Each structure stands twice: as structure tokens, then as C-alpha cells.
User: Which sequence fits this backbone?
């Protein structure tokens, strides 16, 4: 009991509240707290007031203590605004760093849930919260993620651009990435050259455009950033190389040959085929050798297909 009370006092230290009563249960700790702040600022005009209009109860969820859920029964105050020109007659007191308007969680618990959602997402984050004695759902974690302010885009000298499918075959959008930090910068609503060029005109600091060979990105980059140099990203380079190797192999696959090996220790070096090596290995092991090599489906298919020649 004493350890839980000390932990609770430590969690609420500096929050502007005083613990009046602690009720310890098997799975929950309830703390009756009240505000110790003398006055509060009106959200409408900023006028500070200490004149109490009435009291009311607020129930807030806080971070767990010793594997138990924590509930704060806050005796909140409604204050009277002393500014005659303010449109608000009364306002609810908000304790700094602890409460905010219409919230049913403390600011500390909201920050903890936001960190969990950032690292794990919705479903996995909700599973971890269950282990940490925090009652929440995946939809709540996703709402916290959507409520985060978007970071302001910084200077992007090296820009990567590629498309992705919103509805495959129907709707496509464009993703812009900072190639230095590998973080998304912006998302365009379509993949047209006009939209991409308009974005580049608003960001004249772009010096390198890393793209594929799509015509819309090429035209948009030339129109919006004529000073930028165009490069191909590593994935498309490897993809184009694999396609070129496949075309070359396809032109010569009608004439596959067995690789040649050379037997060491002989004066007259003579090529030896793999079939002869298999026969000698079988004779040394004392087992019969079949002159017909085992059937390989890929070899059979390659030999059967006609060769494709460049027109």
C-alpha cells in the first residue's frame, strides 16, 4: 500500500493537484485529488480568475502503477470570468500538464499511448497496452496517430518520386521521398506531369530527381525543375539489368551446352563433359551408371522452346 501511494505521489508531483484519498483494489487504484492552483486563465480572453462558481467531478485514467490501473477522481472547479467584455460567463478549470477539455485521460497517459501507436500501430499496440494494464483499443490508437500534427517539410535537394495504386488499374497517386533521410515528404493526388511540375515549382531547392522512366515524371521534372539532374534509383537499375539479362538468355537458350571441366594431373589437358565425370564416379563407387542424365524440367522446357531472335 505504501509503495503504491509513493508511486502515485511521484506521478502527480508538480501536476498542481493534491492527493486526498487512495483506494487500493486488486486491479485498480483510485485517487481522490483536488486542484491546488490558486487561479486559472479564461480560454476566451485570458483573464485569470479565482472566483469559484461550482464544483464537479471528473474521472481521468492515468498511467498504471505497480501493474494496476489508476483512476483519478478529480474535484474540478468551474470559475467565473471577471472580464465584462468576455463572452464567457464561466469556464472549467484545466490543470496544466494534467487535463485538457473533454479529455478522459491525463496528458501523460495520452503521450504514452501516442508513443506506443507510433512504434507498433493499432492492433499490436492494443495488445501491448493490455499487458501494461491500460484499457484501450486499436481504433483509439489510430485516432491518436491521425491527431498528430504533420511535420513541416524541410529543404529537399535530392527528391525521389514514384507512383502507387490507390485502386489498382483505376486510381494512382504519387509519393515524394527525401532520398537523404528516406522519409516521405508529400503525397500528390495523381501521377500527372502537371501536378508534379507544380509541386517542383514551389520547391526550387530540388537539384536531383530520382525517378523511373515514366514519361509523366520525366516531363514534370523538366517543366518544374529544369535545373535538376535526373538519375535512376537502385531498384530500377537492378530491374532493368535483370530484364536485359533475361532477353540475352532468351535469344541463346535454343543452344544450351554442358559446361566443360578439366581434369587435373594429366599431361594432355582434354575437356571432360559432365556425363563422363558422372560415369567415372559411378564406376569408382561400384554402381551402374545410366548414360541418360536425370530429367530436369527446366532443361527440358528450355530445349523444347524455339529460339527468339531479334528482328
Assistant:
Amino acid at each position: 500500500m505504501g509503495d503504491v501511494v509513493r508511486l502515485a505521489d511521484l506521478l502527480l508531483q508538480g501536476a498542481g493537484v493534491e492527493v486526498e484519498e487512495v483506494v487500493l483494489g486488486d486491479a485498480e487504484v483510485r485517487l481522490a485529488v483536488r486542484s491546488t492552483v490558486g487561479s486559472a486563465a479564461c480560454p476566451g480572453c485570458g483573464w485569470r480568475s479565482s472566483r469559484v462558481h461550482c464544483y464537479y467531478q471528473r474521472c481521468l485514467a492515468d498511467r498504471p502503477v505497480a501493474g494496476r490501473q489508476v483512476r483519478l477522481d478529480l474535484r474540478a472547479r468551474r470559475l467565473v470570468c471577471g472580464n465584462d467584455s468576455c463572452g464567457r460567463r464561466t469556464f472549467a478549470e484545466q490543470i496544466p500538464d494534467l487535463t485538457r477539455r473533454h479529455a478522459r485521460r491525463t496528458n501523460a497517459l495520452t503521450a504514452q499511448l501516442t508513443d506506443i501507436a507510433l512504434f507498433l500501430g493499432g492492433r499490436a499496440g492494443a495488445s501491448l497496452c493490455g499487458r501494461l494494464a491500460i484499457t484501450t483499443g486499436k481504433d483509439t490508437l489510430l485516432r491518436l496517430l491521425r491527431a498528430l500534427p504533420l511535420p513541416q517539410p524541410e529543404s529537399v535537394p535530392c527528391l525521389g518520386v514514384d507512383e502507387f495504386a490507390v485502386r489498382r488499374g483505376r486510381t494512382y497517386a504519387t509519393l515524394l521521398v527525401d532520398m537523404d533521410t528516406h522519409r516521405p515528404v508529400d503525397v500528390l493526388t495523381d501521377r500527372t506531369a502537371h501536378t508534379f511540375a507544380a509541386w517542383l515549382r514551389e520547391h526550387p531547392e530540388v537539384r536531383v530527381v530520382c525517378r523511373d522512366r515514366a514519361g509523366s515524371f520525366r516531363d514534370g521534372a523538366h517543366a518544374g525543375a529544369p535545373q535538376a539532374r535526373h538519375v535512376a534509383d537502385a531498384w530500377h537499375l537492378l530491374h532493368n539489368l535483370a530484364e536485359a539479362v533475361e532477353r540475352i538468355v532468351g535469344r541463346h537458350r535454343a543452344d544450351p551446352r554442358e559446361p566443360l571441366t578439366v581434369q587435373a594431373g594429366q599431361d594432355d589437358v582434354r575437356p571432360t563433359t559432365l556425363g563422363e565425370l558422372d560415369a567415372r564416379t559411378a564406376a569408382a563407387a561400384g554402381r551402374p551408371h545410366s548414360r541418360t542424365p536425370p530429367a530436369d524440367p527446366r532443361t527440358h522446357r528450355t530445349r523444347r522452346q524455339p529460339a527468339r531472335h531479334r528482328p
Remarks:
- The chain has a mean pLDDT of 80.
- The CA atoms of residues 74 and 250 lie 76 Å apart.
